Amino acid sequence: MKLTRREFVTTSAAMIAANWLHAEKLTDKKIAIVLAPSNLGLRPNENGTQQGTWGAPKALMDAGLEKELNAKEIIALDRPKYEFNAQPGTRIRNGNTIRAFTLELSEKINSLLKKNEFPVVIGGDCSILLGGLYALRLAGGRGLIHIDGHSDFSHPGNYDTASRLGSVAGMDLALASGRGEDLLTDWPKIGKPLASDADIIQIGERNAESPHYKDYYGDILRTEIKMFKIQTILADGISATAQKVITRLQERSLNKVWAHVDLDVLDEKVMPAVDSPGSPGLNFEQLSELIAALCNSNRIAGINFAIYDPERDNGLRYAQPLVKCIAAGLQSIWAR
Length: 336
Fold this sequence. Notes:
It contains 12 helices and 8 strands. By secondary structure, it is of the alpha/beta class. The radius of gyration is 20 Å and the shape is globular.
């Protein structure tokens, strides 16, 4: 069918307008902060006390997070009760409570996604990842970017569940990929897994070059999970790494993914106030640059930040730098 010049111009204009409206729909978001004060997924401290990551949401809000992110909405969940002893029917520490908290958290996040808002979930320990990823799936998205100094791939296939309780903060990626007890892998309307291996990208593992890594987590190397170890990231640079991640998202047609950030991906020289500090790692500027590049791709639907522990931060000296880091990474969203 031939078009007249006028018909061609009219049709082209309509297509451009449609594409512009689609782009606006994808990018015209406002930030909503969800406060998830959990420490359920962590082992007790050596002195028998529970860890303090539950206090991170308040510490970061007090340091100006709401203002820095120009947040449209704040949703605060109640702190769940930490139990030191095994719960009935599970070999996962606080497993039943984590499932209940995950369902509550996912409901809040899903309501924000339905309103085309951008959820920023502040935890808390890494178990909050499950709530974000589950909400994403319910909203029609898929895929996970796991930014963490550790792979968090413990599961019954690589440790003895009878000898100790499993801690979700060390197995969140395994659970997200469907490995582990049904209690935290099988979810209403979705089933399992929350993310297939090929739709997961792990960024920041610092122990992959250790001679003992394959003994403990070698099975992740035999999956389709795409991994970017920290040594390679630092050698290649943040911009090049981000582009490789975005290319992977494009190849997998992952247009609406969840991003998880464990702040122990930061080098312990700049961020020691976490459960498992280590080196090498990113600095604040590098983490901001990485998050910004991923958000600029318009493929990130929501994000969570975990593992900052105010009780390990004398004088809360790291709270404000963290707020600035998060805000710089999300600037393309809050500045719209």
